[in-house]
Amino acid sequence: MLFKNESIDINSLPSIDLEKFTPIEKRYRIIMVINSIISATIITIPIILVSIFNAEVPLYVRYALSAVLLTYIIFNIFWSRISIQYKSYLLRSNDILFKKGVIWKKTTAIPFNRIQHVEVKQSAIAKQLNLSKIVIFTAGGNTGDLAISGLNDQTANKIREFIMGKLKDYV
Description:
Elements: E1 22-23, H1 28-53, H2 59-83, E2 88-91, E3 95-100, E4 106-111, E5 115-121, H3 124-128, E6 131-138, E7 146-152, H4 153-169
Antiparallel strand pairs: 1-2, 2-3, 3-4, 5-6, 6-7
């Protein structure tokens, strides 16, 4: 058999921009805000302890740090409102795609024939909101190659079952 490497017209390729991606659940924003508050609290505790036990810290420094932390929390609440609008997924017959990014956009495509296994995870907060994260693993790694957070619990399990059914076709 003779090797061929023919050129392809770029305009003849299908465009994923024409596909209808499914957005993640808006309730996921609550988890994003809670995570921001938790991280701000973790940062704040040492600062408060230093301020309490070290009287040499000037009052203006305490106010400045408080302003920075408050700005951090407000920015993250604002950012969660915006960024959630740019997270969506698309399940097709041979692959799954995930788009994210407000400033730096990223689209990840995982063909089903490369998938090793799929997990559905749920934090305590996500469980209260009936949300899950689906994690897709491909060969050669011990961390997930694709994680889609903010899925309805039932939807995440349906996607997992669909992908696991597809994996049987490739064995």
